[in-house]
Amino acid sequence: MATPWPVKHPERLQLYTLATPNGQKVSVALEELGLPYEAHTVNIREGQQFLPEFLAINPNNKIPAIVDPNGPEGELRLFESGAILLYLAEKTGKLLPKNPAARMECIQWVFFQMGGIGPMFGQFGHFYKYAADKCLDPYPKERYRNEARRLLGVLEQRLAGRQYIMGDEYSIADIAIFPWVGCLDWGYGGYEVIGLDDFPTVMAWYQRCKGRPASEKGLKVGDLD
Predict the structure, then answer these.
(1) Using one digit for the tens of pLDDT, what is the confidence trace for 209-225?
(2) For the chain, which residues make up each domain, given as ranges?
(3) What's the average model confidence in pLDDT over 31-40?
(4) Burial of 202 (0-12, 13-18, 19+ CB in 10 A)
(5) Is CATH 3.30.70.60 what the domain over 100-212 is classified as, yes or no?
């Protein structure tokens, strides 16, 4: 059986993705960095994430994943979106502060997304949208709504007086977080129930990130619709 993802440009970085927040993080970063890449859409509706060809790249059967033929010691296979963002930033020397203290601060905010915003926003979306007819107990939806609002409050405070997470410089911290903020609306239909208007600084920052030319391209990569 032929692979669903034939490689036409083996000299380029290969991206296996879907237009979800985690997938968008990597495609937006690649567009920002100007790295040549070839994108392959992994259709999770059809279970393609469980195909042997994909599991050989990511045994955790989640998007995104990359294969870089020009890795530090030859071909490099990498999964977990935060790890990929850090790798791409270090590979190019861009989107990550060079000052050691600022560099660690930036990585800290990437981990804030990986450990907090992604899982908590995702659980809100699950119980609010996808499991709305399966779980009638209001507790899960209320718990994750409240936690999503708490995390947005942390962002609101951080972004006060700043253009981006790290100040004037756009970084992988912004790229890690802003697709998830957007997903609360376009992905989960939760704009009103979350109360995104209560976080005007976050929403203004989101629009700045979303409106960048690289974002306009990267957010569409792997779109099934």
Answers:
(1) 999 999 999 999 999 87
(2) 13-94, 100-212
(3) 98
(4) buried
(5) no
Here the tokens at position 13 are 């970085």
Instruction: Record the pTM.
Output: 0.96
The residue whose two tokens read 């972004």 is: 159
Beta partners for residue 65, in sequence order: 16, 79
Tens digits of residue pLDDT in 93-116: 999 999 999 999 999 999 999 999
3-class secondary structure, 164:
strand
On whether the CB atoms of residues 86 and 94 are closer than 8 A, the answer is: no
Q: Which CATH superfamily is domain 13-94 in?
A: Glutaredoxin (3.40.30.10)
The neighbour count for residue 78, using CB atoms within 10 Å, is: 19
Name 22's Cβ contacts closer than 8 Å, sequence gap at least 6: 62, 63, 64, 81, 118, 179
- CATH topology identical between 13-94 and 100-212: no
pLDDT the model gives residue 47: 94
